[in-house]
Amino acid sequence: GDSVITVQLTEEDKIEDDVVFYLVFTGSTVQHCTSTRKINRGSLETISPGHDCCETVKVALCASREGRPVLVVAEESFQFVQDEAYDAAQFLATCAGNQQALNFTRFLDRSRPPAADVDFLDEKVALAFRHLKLPAEWNVLGADQSLTDNIPRETLMHFAVRLGLLRLTWFLLQQPGGRGALSIHNNEGATPVSLALERGYQKLHQLLTEEEAREPDSWSTLSHTVYSGDYSVKHHRKLNVYMLTAEA
């Protein structure tokens, strides 16, 4: 999701001032409707929705004019494929609480990827996490809820903070067990909060310690989502387009 899609119109469908175009993506369980931005008389731009699974969906380009019925201008298929970010998010989601797997992720820290790569990783993995269908019982600390805060262990929050992943940290904070993970020490005696301080991640440390901390600017400039039951509306600030997603 969140890739830019360009729509090229044929000569007879050139944009008129009073016509509004939008795209409808119909999957097996979820439907998305996106507004579009007019680039010129022959081109539209919008953002691809984040889908809940990898499948081929039907896309309809619709035109709306006040006082007239909605017209389906064209139809096409669109394929959602599994990429590295989706694989990484799935791996991290399944290894919550798995000490062997979480210790394995620490090799990334030793390789210290460049800042630009970290920012790209943060954006893509956090986005993929938001689109995963996590089980209702999923918890940042893993499935074993009998463990106390006094037992040293590695957590997903340690992983996100160690690499300076601001968006992923924000996402985990909103999940069950996210706040509880902040006080857990790993085998070196470090909590996610002390790791952020030790590594000089000021924005991250602020996010973890301020009770009224808001979502990071680096996240909110991408999009803002409002949820209501089986529906969500997302506003992409960069292109100023809106997306309505509904469970079918």
Automatic annotation (TrEMBL):
Source species, domain of life: Eukaryota
MF (Gene Ontology): MAP-kinase scaffold activity
Annotated protein name in UniProt: A-kinase anchor protein 13
GO biological-process terms attached to the record: adrenergic receptor signaling pathway; positive regulation of canonical NF-kappaB signal transduction; regulation of Rho protein signal transduction
SUPFAM superfamilies, sorted: Ankyrin repeat
InterPro entries for this protein: Ankyrin_rpt-contain_sf, Rho_GEF
Organism of derivation: Aptenodytes patagonicus (King penguin)
Gene Ontology terms: cellular component: actin cytoskeleton; membrane
